[in-house]
Amino acid sequence: MSKKSMENPLSPSAEAARYLENARQILTEKAGKKDGLYSDIKYVRMAAGTAYSAALLILDEYLKQNEGIHFVKPQSIEDYKGRLRKYDKKLLRHTINAYSELHLIGYYQGTESAEVIQNGLANVKQMLSYI
Fold it and tell me: How buried is 119 (Cβ within 10 angstroms: 0-12 exposed, 13-18 middle, 19+ buried)?
């Protein structure tokens, strides 16, 4: 970690926003979109993974705010879903959508569909408003 980043750490929401912006930048500069499809799956996977990491940062911060000293980092998507179910169903829906669109379809399957990835990014952007 650089000296500058240790002096001025970003807030969790700023860090998640930075991840989301990095994902958008990867898609714009490297994935090559034409007619609603990306041409380079490698960069789609990279961007989807980055955006999903932003979602996890948001969820961790949201749970920390709601659980306080009892917060323990979830170990699976099922754990996140179970805990979110107690607090906010709308955030839960955004989480399930981001997991499906970014983690499963974007990262693991490597979709070419720009619509799916953009929907995933939109869900993460909505999640940002919760922290």
Answer: middle
Is 70 exceeded by the pLDDT of residue 89?
A: yes
- Reference 56, options 4, 131, 114; nearest CA is 131
38 forms bridges with which residues in the sheet?
33
Q: Taking phi first (over 0 means left), then psi (-120 to 50 degrees means alpha), and beta for anything else, what does residue 13 get?
A: alpha
What's the CA gap between 11 and 4, in Å, rounded?
Answer: 14
- Contact assessment for residue 26 and residue 43, using Cβ atoms and an 8 Å cutoff: yes
Position 4 confidence tier, pLDDT thresholds 50, 70, 90 = low
pLDDT of 54 = 98
Angle at 130 between CA 45 and CA 13, to 5 degrees: 60
Amino acid residing at 3? K
**Spatial separation of the C-alpha atoms in residues 26 and 46, rounded to whole Å:** 8
**pLDDT over 80 (residue 3):** no
User: Can you say how many angstroms the Cα of residue 17 is from the centroid of all Cα atoms in its chain?
Assistant: 9
Q: Which residue reads 């996140």 in tokens?
A: 80
